[in-house]
Write a structure and sequence with these properties.
Structural class: alpha/beta
Number of helices: 9
Strand order of the largest sheet: 12-11-10-9-7-8-21
Distance between the termini: 61 Å
Helix content: 10-25%
Strand content: 25-35%
Largest sheet: 7 strands, mixed
Radius of gyration: 24 Å
Shape: globular
Oligomer: single chain
Number of strands: 25
């Protein structure tokens, strides 16, 4: 059966109810387009689709519409008997092409799940449960405490109020979402004991900020992918992971670096995409993650995605590296780096910093009783006319001596960190303010 539910509580209850009752369970995110969903359903070939929204274009095969909003309550006294061992099917992100389907077992999904000693943790569910990162938090919450489900259609401030009121002690989010959380009033009252990051590169700035904000919490960043599953976690408060992991990774995981890319082997299950002959692991079971890494002393640091590099003057530039330099400056709260095609390849920058007018303020059955449901500044690189507009920008030209690679910029940006950025990315020799 395929499940595509916009209501997070319906999705949570459906997952609990269907595990052990269907041979395969495909989780589709409600935020994907109907065209993407149809393509994945065709790949899956299931018997029925459980949804709470009618598709605009319809679908071949049975479609079960769940209209009524459920109310959380006590779980069943006697869980239903498992009839089958359910395969859990997830769609890849599609960053390298058309999304494909990957099969997991409940055992592989809970391989890194921890049972904490002391009082049970109350996990806040910020990720979509239908995504691989979301199911990790969901299963951790059900097996290691309880789960808090903020209403999906509320804003971040309202979600944080709900989590604080319900005593959320553990929260997992991407580094970008954590930065937004730290910029949102009321974040400091969360009684967090566990802070988890994943899905993006966790740099030193966000790790330090979270450690300062939540001194009683254990700060952990996790590395996982849909194909490889949950691989490893790092708890020492530093970016990247110890080089020693390449020789002796925790939890039976094996890592290797080939041509600057990280390969991971976590399991001995199917290494091909569902209903395809296309393999995503090599003959030894290693999955090419597509993440570029470099060894710096005793650390292995993430640079960015192999397919995300931008060719600038014949050099590969990773947007993540630019973003990390930007975030190191105290005037920058959030950033977005991306490539923009221009005929003369001139870079440009728009900035909104702190202050002033620029600031923009086995089985899961029986787990339903653990569910609880409740009611910026930015910097971006973009294609922009450097000679016009109120936001200012950079322009490449020759100086009086004929030297090239001289950029002019609005003084608001500050010369030192801009020079650092552009000298490392484009070989800029000087910066004129």
């Amino acid at each position: 059966m395929a499940v595509r539910l916009a209501d997070p509580l319906k999705l949570a209850l459906a997952v609990i109810a269907l595990d052990g009752q269907v041979e395969r369970l495909l989780l589709l995110s409600s935020d994907m387009s109907d065209a993407e969903a149809r393509d994945l359903l065709a790949q899956f070939g299931g018997d029925a689709l459980l949804t709470d929204t009618l598709s605009e274009s319809g679908r071949d095969g049975p479609e079960i519409i769940w209209r009524k909003t459920p109310k959380p309550g006590k779980g069943a006294d006697t869980p239903p008997t498992s009839r089958v061992t359910t395969e859990w099917i997830f769609a890849t992100s599609g960053t390298t092409g058309t999304p494909k389907l990957v099969a997991h077992s409940l055992a592989s999904l809970t391989r890194t799940t921890k049972l904490f000693t002391g009082a049970p943790r109350r996990w806040g569910q910020m990720y979509n449960i239908a995504r691989f990162a979301g199911i990790q938090v969901f299963l951790q919450g059900l097996t290691g405490g309880s789960l808090l489900l903020p209403t999906a259609d509320t804003g971040l401030p309202e979600q944080l109020v709900f989590l604080a009121a319900k005593g959320c002690t553990a929260l997992s989010a991407t580094p970008t979402l954590w930065r937004k959380i730290l910029m949102t009033p009321g974040h400091e009252v969360l009684p967090l004991e566990q802070v988890t990051l994943g899905g993006e590169i966790a740099d030193g700035a966000i790790l330090s900020a979270l450690t300062r904000t939540y001194p009683a919490a254990r700060v952990v960043h996790i590395y996982a992918s849909t194909e490889a599953g949950a691989a490893f976690s790092v708890r020492d408060g530093r970016p990247g992971f110890p080089v020693s992991y390449l020789h002796d990774a925790p939890g039976g995981v094996r890592l290797k670096v080939v041509d600057g890319r990280l390969f991971v082997r976590t399991r001995s299950t199917r290494a091909t995409y569902l209903n395809r002959q296309e393999a995503f692991a090599d003959a030894e079971g290693f999955v090419d993650t597509g993440d570029r890494v470099e060894i710096d002393g005793d650390r292995c640091l993430f640079l960015g995605r192999e397919n995300g590099a931008i060719n600038v003057g014949g050099n590969k530039v990773y947007p993540e590296e630019v973003e990390h330099v930007l975030l190191a400056h105290p005037a920058v709260d959030l950033r977005a780096g991306f490539g923009a095609q221009k005929p003369d390849h001139r870079p440009a920058c728009r900035r909104r910093g702190r202050g002033g007018a620029g600031r923009r303020s086995g089985r899961l059955a029986g787990g339903a009783q653990n569910l609880v449901r409740g009611p910026s500044a930015a910097l971006e690189t973009a294609s922009h006319d450097p000679c016009g507009g109120a936001t200012g920008g950079f322009s490449r030209r020759q100086d009086r001596s004929g030297a090239d690679l001289i950029y002019s910029a609005i003084s608001e940006c500050g010369d030192r960190y801009l020079l650092t950025i552009w000298s490392s990315c484009k070989g800029v020799k000087g910066l004129e303010i």
